[in-house]
Amino acid sequence: MSKTNESLMQRRMAAVPRGVGQIHPIFADKAANATVTDVEGREFIDFAGGIAVLNTGHLHPKVIAAVQEQLTKLTHTCFQVLAYEPYVELCEKVAARVPGDFAKKTLLVTTGSEAVENAVKIARAATGRAGVIAFTGGYHGRTMMTLGLTGKVVPYSAGMGLMPGGIFRAQYPCELHGVSTDDAIASIERIFKNDAEPRDIAAIIIEPVQGEGGFYVAPKDFMKRLRALCDQHGILLIADEVQTGAGRTGTFFAMEQMGVAADLTTFAKSIAGGFPVAGVCGKAEYMDAIAPGGLGGTYAGSPIACAAALAVMEVFEEEKLLERCKAVGERLVTGLKAIQAKHKSIGEVRALGAMIAMELCEDGDVHKPNAALTGQIVAKARDKGLILLSCGTYGNVLRVLVPLTAEDALLDKGLAIIAECFDELA
């Protein structure tokens, strides 16, 4: 009997806890570049990219070749037991890419949540302080500390009780929703007056472009003032580039466009083209604040994932993917704005590079989020062969994270499907 999505979903429901969400009731069988084929043989255009993990596309030949070669050498020793060169080389190459005119060191781990956890550990050790300031709408992971940093309770921490203390929430600047740079800075100053002295704050953590929060881009002026505020009080600035990093925004790291450098930068997702590696890169003096044995992990910086990540970096250079990112972003934004011109339900189209979002609202009022229509568009697009994702505090943002290697014809086909969905539903 041939496998079907329905039969596999039934097995999944019996075997996997309901807390593991699934956006599309589809089981993937194989993929190539920017398309995925399910177990029933149907092909889909992939505008999700594994949630920003496949900037170099599914199964990029150079990445696969690097992994295959590494498989003939070794798959695991645990770097803390027996080291291997790919780990060190990747640390060197990431440090060369991360913004900041200072000596840097890099720690490798396995997931984005781990990277953020370790960034906070490093900040606490380096400053001798414990508090952390995060932002409304921020998403930093699903571990206990990162859930505390994440600015959205449902579904991430609902029913789990209070998260770790010592975390304070400032406003993320968002002109569309009436939060100015002045408002956001004032909200930090209020924390200093009402909740915690600056000398008790180890770090301020921010996504230069919010991921789950809705793809809002931090204004450069805000980042400069945030940097100055951190310098004034001896607070470390952590840039969470788990989703923005590895070329998604048109520069390898989004902070390159913000005019300032963070003290610590987290990265993960697309850095290894679908293989699990993540890390923290920052000022050497801060990275060295923790004694030997205080950082690491059994699978941290796997040789396989390191080989993949090194290949990803070569692909970016050889295929000029940062330039391609800008072209992909411009093509998609132009197409989406043409759809917006016909539909009041699209309140805004925004992007940094190829990190693109459409915010849906009722009757053209951006203060009335339309989560229902967003869900309907995602489902209708799937029916038509396009995989989309939603996000946002109110679930009313459509996001596009298509591989940067997707051909123009495929991008146009995806845009045509989105247009059809709005014509039929909105």
Query: Percentage of helical residues?
Result: 25-40%
H/E series? HEEEHHHEHEHEHEHEEEHHHEEEHEEEH
Cα-atom Rg, whole angstroms?
A: 21 Å
Mean pLDDT over the residues? 97
Tally of DSSP β-strands: 16
Widest β-sheet, arrangement of strands: 4-10-9-8-7-5-6
Q: How much strand content do the residues show? A: 15-25%
Unreliable spans are: none
- What coarse outline follows from CA principal-axis ratios? globular
Q: How many helices?
A: 13
Q: Distance N terminus to C terminus?
A: 40 Å
Largest sheet: 7 strands, mixed
Keywords:
single chain, 426 residues, alpha/beta, five-stranded antiparallel beta sheet, 13 helices, 38% helix, 18% strand
Account of the 3D structure:
With 426 residues, this protein is an alpha/beta fold. Helices cover 38% and strands 18% of the residues. The chain has 13 helices and 16 strands. The strands form 3 sheets. The protein has a 7-stranded mixed β-sheet with strand order 4-10-9-8-7-5-6, sandwiched between helices. A hairpin with a 2-residue loop joins strand 12 (355-362) and strand 13. Helix 3 packs antiparallel against helix 10, helix 11 (321-340) packs parallel to helix 13 and helix 12 crosses helix 13. The chain is globular and about 55 Å long. The two termini are 40 Å apart.
